[in-house]
Each structure stands twice: as C-alpha cells, then as structure tokens.
C-alpha cells in the first residue's frame, strides 16, 4: 500500500515516515566492529532495536558471531532470513513457546537463558522427548532488578541443576546491565560497570571452579560498549541501539555513534504564531523516553499533541515554517519508535533509495 | 504465524496477547447508541481507537451514520471493508495524500476537515481537475490548541473562502474538545464542555447567518458523550474509546462504559519475594498515560521494565504468583496500546472464540 518512488527527494516522501540514513548506519556497524577488533570480546548485536534481517546480515558481514533477539518471534524472523545463530535473551516460558524453540532449533543454533529451575526443566523435558539439546546461559541479575538469579551462590545452584538436565547444555552466563547504559557521565558509568562486571565474572569463576565449564559470558549494551575492550572475563557483548542511535543515547557521554534514524513529518496546521502542528504523534514516535528532538530549527521544541499530532513550539516566533513544510525529528528512543513503523525509508545523499520492511516489528511473543 | 485454537481457555493463550471481551464491547456499542436514541445528535464513532472494520460494522449496525478516522490510511481500510461513509478528522496535506483522497472518494463518501486556505485550495484544485467535489468541515479550535482556526470571525473568513472553491463543498464544522475528555469531575467537565460548545455553535450560527448553510456540527469524545443528549446545535459526536475503554477513562466520573480490553501476560521470572517479572513491556502496552493496572491482585502495581518486561510489585509479599502464571492487565490508554498489536484475541465466557486482525494498525499516513 505504501507509495514511493526510488530517487525521490526526502522532502517528497509521504509522512509520517521512518527514515534510515544507511551510510550513517553502516558507519556505526563498522565502528562497533572496529572497537572490538583488537580484543578478545566478540559481538552478538541485539536485533531488538532494528528488527530488520538485512541490517542483521550487515552486522554479520562486519564480524558479528551471531545475533541476540528479545523474543522467539524475532529469532524466527532472523533465522528464516538466514542468520545462523541467535541468542534469545529473555526466559522462554510455556508450552507453545517451548515447542517453537524446539522447531526453530532444528534449523539454526538457538541459545536461550534460564533463571528458574522449573522453567529450565520444562525446556529440558520437552527437548529430551524429541532428542534435542538446547544450549542455555544462566541469566544473572547484575543490578537491573529484572530477570536473572543473584550472582554468586544462587547462580551456582541453578547452574548445578541445569548441568544435570539431559535436554540442556549449560554454555555460559548472561548478565545484562541495562540500568547502566544511560548513566550520563562516562566515569560514573565506567565505575558502576566495573562493579557489575566483577559480580558477573566472579560468578563465572565460581561456577567454573565447581567444575562446570562456561564458554560464554554475555553482557553489554551500546552505553557500556565503550569499555568492552578492557573487559577480562567477558566473552561477548550484545549492543543494539548503536546501529541507529537515539536522542536519549545522544546525551550519554563518550558513546560515539552517529544518529542514523529520523521521523519525517509534515506541518499540517499553522493557526498560531507560536507553534505549528505536525502529523507525527504517539503513533509515529514513542514517548517513553520523552519527546523527540527537532532537527535544524534552533530552540524549537516538540510537544506530543495526541496520537496523530505534535506541536512544534518556537523559541522565536519568527519561524517561517508553513503548512506543507517537512521537519525531521530525532526519536528519543529507537527501539520503541521503530516498533511503531512497518518500513524503513532508506536514504542516501538526501534521496530515497530503498524501502525495507521492518520484518520483526510487533514480534512480541 | 499466530498460533491459537478455538475454545482455548484464556489461561492457555500465548502471551503477551491483546484480549477483547466481545460481550462487553457489544454492550458498550449498544449503550452509546441508546444514549443518543431519544435526541437529535447522531453518532459517527471514531475508529482510531479499535482500528478494526468488524467493530466498525457493529457500530454501523447499532445506528452509526458513518465513522470517523484519524488518517486516510484508516479510512482506506474501512472503505475497502464496506463502510460507506468516513470523516477524516485531521487535515489532509500534500499531493500524495490528496491523490489518495480523490481515489477513495470515487468509492465512498469521504468528508474531511480544513483549517488552512492554502491546504483547502490544493484539495479543491486537484478535485476540480478530475471533476470531483470533496465535502469539507471547517476545523475549529474549541480550546485544545491543536488543529483548527479560532472560533468566530477567523472561522467565518475560512468558511467564506472554502465556499468559493469549486472542488469543495462546505458542509459543516468540526470542533473536537480533546482537552476536556479526561476532566475527572463530572460537573467540572460539563461546565468546560458547555463553554466550548457555545463557541462552536455560536460560530456555526455566525456562518449560517452569513448565508452559508451547514448541515454538520461534529464534536465529542467518550468523556463528553455523557452530555451529548442535551447539546442543542451539535448534530453528531465522534467518540472512540467507549467501545473498549481504558484505565485512564476508568478514573473519569460518569463515563459509564465497561472495560473490554486487556493485555494477557505471563510471569517469566520470580527471583525476589517482592515482585515478579511478566512478559509484557513497552512493546505490548503503551506508556503515554502511565502504567497499566493489574487486575485481580489486591495492591499489586505494574512498573515498566523495558521493552519486553514489566515488574509486578506486591503490597503483600505473600503473593503466590509463580513462573508460568498468567496476569491480566488493564491498559492505561486503549488507542496506543491497540496500535502495538496485530490481533485481537476475542474471548467469550473466558474462552478464545476468534482472532481478528487489527487491520488499520500502523496506518499512520
Ligand atoms: C538483554 C539486552 N541486551 C542488550 C540490549 C541492548 O542494549 P542497547 O540497545 O542499549 O545497546 C538490551 C536492550 O534493551 C537488552 O535488553
Ligand atoms: C478528532 C477526534 N475526535 C474524536 C476522538 C475520540 O475521542 P475518545 O477516544 O476520547 O472517545 C478523538 C480522539 O483522540 C479525536 O482526536
């Protein structure tokens, strides 16, 4: 249904439209790979951000060892598009999902995480019945208070149990420090990160010491990827946002990637001197991390004005924006904004060169 | 890709899942129609909430005169599904959209709104070229500070211009009082509403007095539908949320519809005594109006824990929720939550009876 023409100028694209500056995204993909090239930490980028197999393949081509997915549904999309190895970073619970995991595991390497003995046993039992073995990481809570067992003894206790389950293979630990990614100050972020990582690597040592080999210690997002080269004991990181970035990450010191994602919007109403109304609201831009930033208009502020509209308020009433004009917005949160759109409008040199489906959008199961 | 079985118990549906209690929705559809049955105000319900042609047809069967849509994309979905008349309640700007409007207008009655002379002229010019006439309402700002010209003289001035445009037919006014829908106190809401409606109906009188007949004066949402029967000068209302409701509307006095929409989620982690982690986060529940409400667990609070997770915190640590258990959540905002999902899981007597595509989800253009 989407109408577009290759070579259209950005200003001619129908709006609201999600815009991907592919050259910037490719530079980001390269920059993250370069960051790791001299160390032993490998890259398993999280596709929950971009949700697009083509971008995942570009990450693989740049040296990723596989990808990370938040949900089985995302993993299915990636594997059907030829990605050979996916870590599902959230616990898989319930019979329907376990059956999907087993079906998928016949066609690619699918790793997952466990933090509960009963949930682990359910996977093991189902896998055993069909003669499969699922590689799992024990999920460790390194301070985020989300999923994961506590570091140290509780993690060891779960690892011991997992090691006895015939349908599972204990391959490592996951400890995602999501609470640290957006700590603004580089030094503060690094100090917290070192403390968190010590919990994780100490736990890995404890488990290894008890006789269970662990190949993988997986952690890390875009905000802490800065430190990944100096991370003894960490074997891989799983950053997601770096490919496209967002305005929230733009405020975090020392992250160092380029903004590649925008929402293009049109002025649809101007009845006051102080503001205009644009056609992108809460159905085109996520609001969980605040409003988007207006690009290229000094002092202009975007305010959400319902599901379909935003109000752009001017610092200086002299703005000459008129009905029909286009405005580029920088999303505050990339993952949730991308999740509202069906397509990337891929641009190069300010021209539309491709439209890509966001195939894993809405794969919430 | 969605796996489901007719007759499944709610507790067996894979999660997260958007649940529609169809009996409650049908009672809401009936209740709104009953509310209007003895007056002269007609019903043109807004489909931006449910985004589902089948629900729109149920509204038509209950006596609606047509539907309202926020975007042309929604109107296209409705018209292709046989809805004969759609009001697009936001200004249509830009050549691509005008071409779509003209194409659509050959197959159904499509009304739209204008608040800008240039934008109106662009539609008129394009319509004239193909020998069409588009019915339009002048959009009036009754206090929301979104789209719309000011009431009184500015509205009259625009109406005069529109009346001279050969490709347009001036048929009425729209004045949506979105800023009043959630005023908690019934009395306060009513007082503000009377003042707003006076502006709108006075403007209609002014324009009619200047020699321009106006058939339609369209306004109203779920929150102000309480007063619609006693609304001289208003010809129709366009409420949306009432079909399914949400927790935000649940706090508004005197609205009087039933909650018919839920998000079903599964406990995927329980490593602390104080809370559990469920599998519905910001990709399954909108956060613009705050967190969802936990149904049926006294004192339990939902806290967003990222895109894929929520944390349910207990007042009383004795909760016996375990990994694998299901929890029903009441979304805080129906429109934006529905917009995250591809399907309604339609339930009756706690059994899954149908799965309906949310066909206009993501139709943001
Ligand atoms: C488990 C896990 N790993 C990695 C990431 C990627 O983090 P970022 O997008 O900040 O790079 C996320 C993001 O939420 C995550 O949940
Ligand atoms: C123009 C317009 N009319 C009607 C409605 C319906 O309002 P509600 O969902 O509160 O009933 C909306 C909702 O945003 C709207 O924008």
UniProtKB/TrEMBL annotation, chains A, B:
The keyword Lyase applies. Keywords: Lyase. GO terms for biological process: D-serine catabolic process. It comes from the Bacteria. It holds the Pfam family Ala_racemase_N. InterPro entries: Ala_racemase_N, D-amino_acid_metab_enzyme, D-ser_dehydrat-like_dom, D-ser_dehydrat-like_sf, PLP-binding_barrel. GO terms for molecular function: D-serine ammonia-lyase activity. The keyword Lyase applies. Transmembrane segments: none annotated. This is DSD1 family PLP-dependent enzyme. The lineage of its organism: Bacteria, Pseudomonadati, Myxococcota, Polyangia, Polyangiales.
